[in-house]
Design a protein that fits this description.
heterodimer, A: mainly beta, Immunoglobulin-like, 2 domains, five-stranded antiparallel β-sheet, 2 helices, elongated, B: mainly beta, seven-stranded antiparallel β-sheet, two-stranded antiparallel sheet, 11 strands
Amino acid sequence: MKKYIVGGIVILLVAILFLLTNDRSTSIFTLRHLYSQALTDGEFLRIPLLVNNDSFYTDESSIERINLIDDINIIPVSIDSISKDELSYYYGAEKYNVYMFDLVPEIGARVNLLDARLEIIYLNGEVNRLSIGDINIINYSENKDLGITGLTGIINIIEGYETTVGFVMGIKNLTDSDIEIKGFNINANPVFVNNKLIKEVENLEIDMFTSMEELIPEYHYLLDPTLNTSFIISANSKKNFIVPIVYEEIRYLNRFPIIIKYDDNEFIYDDFLFMNLGYFPEFLLETKRKYDMLN
Amino acid sequence: MRFFLLMSILSTHNNFEEIIFIDEGRLLEEYSEEEYDDYYDHLKKRFFGWNSYIVEDQKDVYFVSDTLFSYSNQSNESISYKYVYETGKDIKDSVAVTGGISTNASTKAKGFNLKFDNKLQSKISVEQSKSITEKWQLDIDVPPFTKMSLKIRGEGKISNGVSHLYIFFIKVKEGGWEVLDVTKEYYWLVEEYV
């Protein structure tokens, strides 16, 4: 009799262990990214999520709608696609796949969402709000008054983040009259341009890993942003500038548009990918958030 | 006994203009025939399958890649140019092999998968899909009488070595292989006069 009881307990323990080790409830990881894009027709915002299994949480057919939200704004987005990347990550012993949510904001205006959440509303009524970082979007528009004749990011490491601390840009005035450059903006809140420290340079051949303090001795990445500058570019001629970028809070800034105010107009240079360190550079892992789903 | 002779033509990573080791290291194309023989001596016979000897293991490198695009505007008006770039499709990890090794069957070599097949190929350079995918659509206006080029540089890790394939303890293939795993990419736009 005793051996049957012991055998029963062993079977029960094995069954419990089996159930515990086969717990395939869905977990989602997000990292704090800084999104800054100038969208044109057909372009989308790509938001990567780390998900530990294939479930309805990443199945487009189970989603009723998606919004990008912050404490004030709700921006509806349409789904261009949801796809699974071949890349996978391990968190402890658990494997996570990368799902790319390619989304198109259904709004024609400039969007700036600090501490944005991806709000996914499922057909079964479940709602997930996932912290994804900061979202900054403008619409691209063409302008033939200026031409960009070169662009290089200045990449430094600050607070352990490899990030863009400035850029070197050549601007050509394509009009037959002088123009006044009044300010640069990168629409990448909480990262900004310090217009006061912009420096005119002879040529664009500056190594992208040069220290920003070496290029502009007064520079510090925590300086306050400033909005205005003044440089005259004569008709049909060009000038080169070093434009410093300052941080209200540390972020990984690798891609952004450049908006140049001149005379009473605005020139938008489409978002430029200055570097690509993968979706999840190691220094961003400290920003990870884990969400355990109900199913 | 060798069923296939080592070919003297060496492989290259066709995507990259230059690869520089941060510390010491050698590319597959720098192996001499004598060194190939030395490395092959490290390989013991097997009943069946591949046996590999790693010469360089995940060594850090810088690379300068080819120009991603170059567009010349020879008119007196600026021209709009739309460039669509998907990292991981346009610039990919690179695999280079020499000798009797090709790339369709698989063997594992310490931390990465290298795919071989049964075709004898003296020189092959193929691309592996890469996972740090970012889609980027760049609308640029190229000023009059200007040539604009988008360039790329980056960092990665190189592994290389030699392998034998045995069938019933008989060596049927041998050759060298090299894998470049791209970890960082940096882009810049330059003007070149027409």
